[in-house]
Amino acid sequence: MELKELKHKKLKKWIEDAVELMQPDNVYVCDGSKTEYERLSEQMVKEGLAIRLNAQKRPGCLLFRSDPSDVARVENRTFIASRTQDAAGPTNNWIDPVELKQTMTDLYRGCMRGRTMYVIPFSMGPVGSPIAKIGVEITDSAYVVINMHIMTRVGTRVLDALGGDGEFVPCYHSVGKPLKKGESDNGTWPCAPLEKKYISHFPETREIWSYGSGYGGNALLGKKCLALRIASVMARDEGWLAEHMLILKITNPQGKAKYIAGAFPSACGKTNLAMLVPTIPGWKVETVGDDIAWLKFGSDGRLYAINPEAGFFGVAPGTSEESNYNAMKTIEKNTIFTNVALTKDMDVWWEGIGYEPEGTLIDWTGKEWVYDKNKNNAPAAHPNSRFTTPASQCPSIAHEWEDPNGVPISAFLFGGRRAHTIPLVLESKNWLHGVFLGSIVGSEVTAAALDLKVGQVRRDPFAMLPFCGYHMGDYFKHWIHIARKTTPDKLPKIYFVNWFRKTDDDKWLWPGYGDNSRVLKWIFERCDGSGKAVETPIGNMPPLDAIDRPASVSAQDMEILLKVDTEGWLQEVDDIRRNHYPKFGDHLPKELYELLDEMEKGLRK
Predict the structure, then answer these.
(1) For 454-463, b where at least 16 C-beta lie within 10 A, e where not — what string?
(2) Tell me, which fold does domain 243-309+398-604 have in CATH?
(3) Which end of the chain, N or C, is more open, meaning fewer C-beta atoms within 10 Å of its C-beta?
(4) Catalytic hit among 61, 268, 394, 527
């Protein structure tokens, strides 16, 4: 489609203003077709930016290598530019929006010289869904276009749904590397230096401005930027929830199904749980979404969730047939790999894939690499290397995954990586107590983190710490207040889970992976009114015989997994009271302090 053919006057004017500012050589409005995807893919192969993988082993797959300075989200260059710093809260980087727009306008001036401006109309959620939202991203990166093809619904059908006056979230993106006449990227990943990278969000005006990075959530602006940081503000204002949550469907042997949404900080097995293969005979788990859930109340008073994405943007290292069989099957074709290693037969490899590579590889930096069993050399794949793959290819995808009305959620799970104290599973006493549990989620720091001591708990409330677009104390209030929109019996039950308990000599107490279905089974039964539980000072817990114990877990280990560690919880209470809750000041709902007091009182009895 030509720019002049656009029916939406506001959209057309916005694009024209961007053209005047950024001065691209060409403007192209994306139609979302397969032909468009193939043409841009071939263009990048010819430019030396993409490598086609073995067509027999991985048909339709491409490999990209980014610049070493552009490999992940850059939290210290990610900004919430609300009108006041207080509105952004203590967990966000704040810059005055007027000042930030001036700085970035100067950077955008002429930034697309020598490049094509791609206009990407995209829908987060099935096109036309009452829960979906539309965005339009302007970018000078063909890599971004083909990734957005997979991760969102792109093109003419989105413009048709937008009509002549529909609302859209305007998204600016540029790699920040203009080209002189006759110059090309010459096969080198284009981006700007770190100090010139900006991933900026303007909550009040619902705008996203990104500059300098071509990677992941910094550049695919439907992902964390719209789906969480801006959508969380929309959700607060409009009375719904935008959450960093997987959505799964679990069906019992009698054919009864329930839907569960779960929030976990990074490196806590969220994607593995979303695509779980159960170890309990007769039970089935299917995938609705692996990363983000948007939830609105239906006419029956229940919360219904959609996965606003159309693909998976997964971390490659550690993904294997053992850890995530369904993910490995999903990425066999039509997948974009970024920063993984290349084998001599033009296939991909990464650490934790489940087998040793043969011969010399080309690592993520483009250098020769030979496998060392002792792991003395640097990784062949970057630790944050990724695959972008269509959700529709997942063998475990649920048939309802694109239902425009969403699926009814029976339970929320919150969890982190905790070697001690937190039991295998814990049910909240009620909705408010569940919000309290979500507000204290954390993971223990590993040796990889330089800013905290090993074993110290890094709190990540609701797994939303990097993604909430406003003051987190007000976010907790929103969760509390939203319960008033329905009756308590219609609200999902809330659970705290922990797959990562260890013995004092550092051995896993729970096998995890497919055996997590045993915990899901108890949660299903609780939601169904049949599961057994006992009341404790920290919440409702399963008695020892309520969870099907795997053969690898002894009765003694099961006791530890389901025990209330009174001393550990009192230390937890102290840490929350001293180090966590004070950060939110007078924005923290008083109800949460009251629940903390109540828990401490119960533990000291």
Answers:
(1) eeebbbbbbb
(2) Phosphoenolpyruvate Carboxykinase; domain 3 (3.90.228)
(3) C
(4) 268
